[in-house]
């Protein structure tokens, strides 16, 4: 870069900084800035367009265009050259603007006489803020140096916008992060919540985008990059060798941290007059802009890695760590791009809700959020850039909508909804100690699903009659290495203690598919849900299962023990699993330990094959629990993790209900106790239909026990059954419409 251009660029930035330091309203500052840029760059025009809402740009200041067009000229994103710059987040540089694709003639501005056009996006960390444009009468292409200089200016404008330097009257000059924003995501754990934003990784604020002394800044950058490299090397050294994903990310970190191109670009920005922080952020913004347009998921991941790395570098440079001094609100709603299960557990039940920019329904974080019954919305785009610590948030975990800084009317409507739910909660609390007995006198056992120590208090608060499903893999998922047998035995003993004599059905490790342990060698499988998982792993590599069974026997320590095996798909698998448990009981006895007072050995029916299993299966199992989540996905061949198909088939579909009913009949024939422990058991209408076709035990999330009990207590199962049968006879695809209609007529 020529020495002269460098100093010209620095001069421009210095003048900008001086202008910004002077007192004045936002509008005055913008006006002065356009004049300075036009003067310094030797152009006839400089204009600044800012977003007035998510889709519209407004001309907010200009030097050279007709002054009366300021705040009058508006463009939609993608419209005209300015709109295209905003849309693509890329500069447009042309010597013949009127001939350029998409040029829009705006008579009120008088811009038709300007041939050359250079527009550059004003953006900060992927958040689009506006466009800065220079134009000249003389037909010429701007040089790379000029494009670059305007990009540096745009960066400073972005920082200044963030710091509120241009706040004034009108929507376009409204302070950032103050407007209401609605973000649509995907529900990963239902529930509604009102609270205040708490950023898992607070935004780093750069207060000094312009620097006087490039030498000092270059030195600061070098030191920070060196420190970053050391940190990445340390992370690589302590990484678990078995975790391919983690290693891949860290290798990418190392590659970027050592990338000459990355460092060179930042050094050039500094030479132009930016501070080290602003130079890092400029690169980060560019990476984020690219991230939004790259379709290849692998490349997008790598850009994410670069983004993470830039964040680390910024934290080193600014000294702003996790602790920014901000006070955690009393009703925090956690905002993060993504979060690991361990970190989420650290926050625990203190959170009112969670909003993630990424995440998936089956992620470990989602599993933990479900266990903690904290409403979770995932794939909520832009939330980490939009939200500031302390912002009011309404989280609608039923619709998957996040209202950030909501309008008063939205807030009032939402509060009505919450009040109605609170009223319902009171109703449920009133029947907490009552049994679930239907109007026709049928007693139904309602138990809860659990898996973490954090679930145990719900045993009392929910009115559960025991734990119908204890997902033991959660304890393994939230750790970074296999828990020791003694530790597991102590954990299980605490669960049995907390149950105070109520039955707890421990399910042996259900890993594989969506539940991948970071310390296990990952399996490359084309269809993990149909792959090497659950009991298949347990039987093929029995070491871990045997250790777990020993821990369970020790935990029971003379008390009754209930164990069930997941994903049994044929009789011999159950026989073999059962044999393992019997062997461990023998072994423990030989070792002189106290055996459980009574042992129940059950099977989970999660594949359609077991509905047709030999009678011996039903006779051998002490009990059967239907894992409806898996059973339904296999019955309809519809992946439970795939948003496109997972809601496609109704649980109340006639085929599925009739199929479940056959299993009920087979259990009745052999006298095998049967329960249902998939998510559907916790939905009142589904629970009613399941009991109507013969289920007498349901296991669900603790929060569902109240609503389900309430529904059952005012229902007559024979009547419900008649409605279901009539719907089936009518050729309906699902019995839901008929059941809903009946409930409505009943006054609900
Ligand atoms: C199920 O499949 O219904 C079940 C209860 O097990 P999980 O959801 O843990 O697979
Ligand atoms: Mg399952």
Automatic annotation (TrEMBL):
GO terms for biological process: phosphoenolpyruvate-dependent sugar phosphotransferase system. It is found in: Cytoplasm. The keyword Transcription regulation does not apply. Belongs to the PEP-utilizing enzyme family. Its EC number is 2.7.3.9. SMART domains: GAF. Its main location: cytoplasm. GO terms for molecular function: kinase activity; metal ion binding; phosphoenolpyruvate-protein phosphotransferase activity. It catalyses: L-histidyl-[protein] + phosphoenolpyruvate = N(pros)-phospho-L-histidyl-[protein] + pyruvate. Signal peptide: none annotated. Its cofactor is Mg(2+). NCBIfam families: PTS_I_fam. This is phosphoenolpyruvate--protein phosphotransferase. Pfam families: GAF, PEP-utilisers_N, PEP-utilizers, PEP-utilizers_C. Keywords: Cytoplasm, Kinase, Magnesium, Metal-binding, Phosphotransferase system, Sugar transport, Transferase, Transport. InterPro entries: GAF, GAF-like_dom_sf, PEP-util_enz_mobile_dom, PEP-utilizing_PTS_enzyme, PEP_util_C, Phosphohistidine_dom_sf, PTS_EI-like, PTS_EIN. The keyword NAD does not apply. Residues 25-171 form the GAF domain. GO terms for cellular component: cytoplasm.
């Amino acid at each position: 870069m020529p020495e002269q251009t460098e100093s010209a660029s620095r001069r421009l930035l210095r003048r900008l900084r001086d202008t910004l330091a002077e007192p004045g309203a936002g509008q005055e500052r913008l006006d002065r800035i356009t004049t300075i840029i036009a003067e310094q760059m030797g152009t006839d025009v400089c204009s600044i367009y800012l977003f007035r809402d998510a889709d519209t740009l407004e001309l907010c200041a200009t030097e050279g265009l007709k002054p009366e067009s300021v705040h009058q000229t508006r463009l939609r994103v993608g419209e005209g050259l300015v709109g295209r710059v905003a849309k693509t987040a890329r500069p447009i540089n042309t010597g013949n603007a009127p001939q350029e694709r998409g040029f829009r003639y705006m008579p009120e501005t008088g811009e038709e006489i300007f041939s050359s056009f250079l527009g550059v996006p004003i953006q900060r960390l992927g958040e689009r803020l506006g466009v800065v444009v220079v134009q000249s009468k003389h037909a010429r292409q701007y040089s790379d140096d000029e494009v670059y200089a305007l990009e540096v200016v745009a960066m400073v404008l972005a920082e200044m916008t963030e710091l509120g330097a241009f706040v004034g009257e009108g929507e376009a000059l409204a302070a950032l992060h103050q407007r209401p924003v609605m973000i649509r995501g995907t529900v990963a754990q239902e529930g509604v919540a009102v609270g205040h934003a708490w950023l898992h990784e607070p935004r780093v604020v750069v207060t000094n985008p312009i620097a006087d002394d490039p030498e000092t800044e270059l030195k600061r950058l070098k030191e920070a990059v060196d420190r970053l490299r050391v940190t990445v090397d340390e992370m690589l050294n302590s990484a678990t060798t078995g975790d391919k994903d983690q290693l891949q990310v860290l290798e990418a970190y190392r590659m970027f941290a050592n990338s000459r191109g990355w460092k060179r670009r930042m050094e050039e920005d500094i030479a132009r007059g930016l501070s080290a922080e602003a130079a890092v952020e400029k690169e980060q913004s560019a990476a984020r802009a690219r991230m939004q347009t790259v379709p290849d998921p692998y490349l997008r991941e790598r850009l994410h890695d670069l983004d993470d790395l830039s964040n680390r570098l910024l934290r080193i440079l600014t000294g702003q760590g996790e602790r920014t001094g901000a006070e955690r609100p009393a009703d925090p709603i956690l905002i993060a791009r993504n979060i690991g299960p361990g970190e989420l557990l650290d926050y625990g039940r203190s959170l009112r809700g969670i909003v993630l920019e990424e995440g998936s329904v089956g992620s470990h974080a989602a599993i933990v959020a479900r266990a903690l019954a904290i409403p979770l919305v995932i794939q909520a785009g832009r939330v980490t850039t939009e939200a500031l610590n302390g912002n009011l948030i309404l989280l609608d975990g039923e619709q998957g909508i996040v209202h950030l800084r909501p309008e008063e009317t939205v807030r009032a409507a939402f509060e009505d909804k919450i009040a109605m739910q609170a009223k319902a909660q009171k109703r449920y609390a009133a029947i907490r100690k009552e049994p679930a007995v239907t109007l026709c006198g049928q007693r139904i056992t309602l138990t809860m699903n659990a898996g973490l120590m954090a679930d145990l208090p719900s045993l009392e608060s929910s009115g559960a009659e025991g734990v119908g499903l204890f997902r033991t893999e959660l304890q393994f998922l939230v750790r970074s290495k296999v828990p020791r047998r003694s530790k597991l035995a102590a954990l299980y003993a605490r669960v049995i203690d907390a149950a105070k004599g109520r039955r707890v059905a421990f399910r042996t490790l259900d890993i594989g598919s969506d539940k991948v342990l970071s310390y296990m060698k990952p399996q490359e499988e084309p269809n993990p849900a149909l792959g090497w998982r659950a009991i298949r792993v347990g039987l093929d590599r029995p070491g871990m299962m045997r250790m777990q069974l020993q821990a369970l026997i020790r935990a029971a320590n003379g008390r009754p023990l209930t164990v069930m095996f997941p994903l049994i798909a044929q009789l011999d698998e159950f026989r073999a699993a059962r044999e393992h448990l019997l062997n461990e009981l023998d072994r423990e006895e030989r070792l002189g330990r106290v055996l459980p007072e009574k042992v129940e050995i059950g099977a989970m029916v999660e594949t359609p094959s077991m509905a047709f299993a030999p009678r011996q299966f039903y006779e051998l199992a002490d009990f059967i629990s239907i894992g409806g989540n898996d059973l339904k996905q296999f019955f309809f061949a519809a992946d439970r993790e795939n948003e496109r198909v997972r809601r496609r088939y109704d649980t109340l579909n006639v085929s599925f209900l009739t199929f479940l009913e056959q299993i009920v009949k087979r259990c009745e024939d052999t006298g095998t106790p049967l329960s249902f422990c998939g998510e559907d058991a916790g939905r009142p209408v589904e629970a009613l239909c399941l009991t109507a076709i013969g289920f007498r035990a349901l296991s669900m999330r603790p929060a569902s026990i109240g609503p389900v009990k309430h529904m059952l207590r005012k229902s007559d199962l024979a009547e419900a059954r008649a409605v279901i049968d009539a719907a089936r006879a009518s050729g309906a695809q699902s019995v839901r419409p008929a059941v809903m209609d009946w409930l409505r007529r009943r006054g609900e």
